[in-house]
Amino acid sequence: MKQLLALVIVLVGLASPAFAQKKPSPKAPVKKVAAETAASILRGKPIYTQYCQSCHHADGGGGAATLKPPLSNTSHLMTSRSKVILRMLMHLRRQNINGGDLTDQQLADVLTYLRNSFGNKGLAVPASEVPQIRKVLFLKSTHYEHSAADTMGGWR
Ligand code: HEC
Predict the structure, then answer these.
(1) For ligand 1, mutation pick of 41, 43, 55 (most atoms within 8 Å of CB)
(2) Which of 34, 48, 79, 130 lies most in the core, judged by the most C-beta atoms within 10 Å?
(3) Ligand 1 centroid from CA 87, angstroms
(4) Which residues are 68's β-sheet partners?
């Protein structure tokens, strides 16, 4: 009797809508990535305004007239994600930029914002890639600090 009951339960289970549900459509992860990128861009914009705009202007412009490179349509930002993180960490450190202690997430967000603004269109920069690149540079933060890189002659 117990076995019969178990069989009924299994059959009911198989017929239930949960089991009959189709596999998630392959579009679902794409949508998720797009939503995450959009959220990152939104978070990145105020970070740009606060920490970068004074030099790079509201429109990401610049050029020879102001001695700042334009951030529009620039290959600087559109290289591989690890390269762009590396260049950014070096840039912040070199300039000893006020508020340079950006968290991994803030750094990723501002780069994702820039890679999708001023005529650029690119993949999001994931915060999860930042720590390993900080490690490569011997940086605990983006602030200037004496580190192994300096004592070894460094890369500045
Ligand atoms: C004090 C002025 C100043 C501030 C603030 C500043 N930058 Fe820059 N930025 C420069 C100058 C000057 C250069 C060109 C020389 C260089 O690369 O250091 C540059 C270059 C760049 C480049 C291209 C160069 C490369 O190596 O990829 C990017 C991208 C960039 N900045 C992004 C940012 C972002 C993002 C912020 C804010 C978190 C920021 N900058 C804040 C002055 C500034």
Answers:
(1) 55
(2) 130
(3) 9
(4) 63
How many Å lie between the centroid of ligand 1 and the Cα of residue 104? 17
pLDDT value of position 94: 76
Domain 29-151 annotated CATH 1.10.1660.10: no
Nearest CA to ligand 1 atom 39: 52
Rounded to two decimals, what is the model's pTM?
A: 0.76
63 torsion bin: left (phi>0), alpha (psi -120 to 50), beta (else): left
Where do the structural domains in the chain lie, given as residue ranges?
A: 29-151
- Consecutive 10-residue runs of the chain (156 residues): their mean pLDDT? 55 52 70 93 96 86 62 83 90 73 93 94 94 79 47 38
Q: For ligand 1, is residue 57 a contact (CB within 6 Å)? A: no
